[in-house]
């Protein structure tokens, strides 16, 4: 009898740059930009909180330290999704 190791699907996402204007992420050979104007809850966070991002499923990103969930669609087209943070 043999036992199978549990496989974990790990998607690759990396914050590659944090600027005064926003955050750059690289995922699946695509570069995404999250401007603070559209995603203000990242602006005053620590670097650790921003770079600690997970991709639980393809195109779904989660920042556990600040409890933010975003999809690639929201990042690419934030104006299509009127519910935004009220943080000044």
What's a quick, concise take on this entry?
This protein has 88 residues and is mainly β. Helix content is 11%, strand content 34%.
How do the helices and strands line up, and which of them pair or pack?
Elements (H helix, E strand, L loop, with lengths): L12 E6 L3 E6 L2 E6 L11 H5 L2 E4 L2 E4 L4 E4 H5 L12
Mean pLDDT: 86
Sum up the overall morphology in one term: globular
Which percent band covers the strand fraction? 25-35%
Q: Element order, helices and strands?
A: EEEHEEEH
Distance between the termini: 60 Å
Q: Order of strands across the widest beta sheet? A: 1-2-3
Percent range of helical residues = 10-25%
The Cα radius of gyration reads 15 Å
Helices, by number, come to 2
Tally of strands: 6
Tell me the name of the CATH class: Alpha Beta
Can you walk through the features of this model?
- With 88 residues, the protein is mostly beta strands.
- It has a single domain (13-80), classed as NE0471 N-terminal domain-like, CATH 3.30.2020.
- It is 11% helix and 34% strand.
- The protein contains two helices and six strands.
- The protein has a three-stranded antiparallel sheet with strand order 1-2-3. A three-stranded antiparallel sheet has the order 4-5-6.
Features:
88 residues, mainly beta, NE0471 N-terminal domain-like, globular
């Amino acid at each position: 009898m043999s036992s199978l190791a549990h496989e974990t699907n790990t998607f690759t996402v990396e914050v590659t740059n944090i600027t005064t204007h926003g955050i750059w992420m690289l995922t699946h050979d695509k570069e995404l930009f999250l401007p603070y104007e559209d995603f203000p809850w990242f602006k005053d966070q620590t670097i650790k909180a921003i770079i600690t991002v997970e991709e639980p499923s393809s195109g779904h990103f989660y920042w556990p330290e600040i409890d933010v969930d975003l999809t690639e669609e929201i990042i690419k087209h934030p104006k299509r999704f009127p519910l935004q943070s009220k943080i000044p």
